[in-house]
Amino acid sequence: MNKLTPLALILTAGCGGAQMLKTDVSASAIRAAEESGAAKMPRASLHLQLAKEEMERSQKLAKDGEKEMAASYLQRAEADAELAVVLAHEQNEKTAAAEAVERVRLLQQESR
User: Fold this and answer.
1) Do the domain assignments include residue 4?
2) What confidence tens digit (pLDDT) does each residue in 44-60 have?
3) Which of the 8 DSSP states describes residue 37?
4) Run of H or E residues at 13
5) 90 within domain boundaries
6) N or C: which end of the chain has fewer CB within 10 A?
7) Count of domains in the chain?
8) What b/e readout covers 29-59, taking b as 16+ CB neighbours within 10 angstroms?
9) Which residues pair with 11 in a beta bridge?
10) Residue 45's domain spans which residues?
């Protein structure tokens, strides 16, 4: 299983001492969830949707100057996106296992 980057959500100093929120890690986690097929799997899609909503909320909070709360929502977004990836992989593995069991069953029937 691929390990996503650990939580690296930081507030960094921007121009003129203003604080800017780093969203790359959360955005990457969301992309990874989308690429894993999470949107097609009920449990995984729920967490993918939550991650997207939390990312949006984070951006709104950052615009309103609520940097700590925005960073918290970014962490939530990343965690939900990572969970979506794990759930998608789990479902893919279950499907592959079920297909393997079915192939074995068919081979056993053919050999009788």
Assistant:
1) no
2) 999 999 999 999 999 99
3) T
4) strand 11-13
5) yes
6) C
7) 1
8) bbebbbebbbeebeebbebbebbbebbebbe
9) 21
10) 11-110
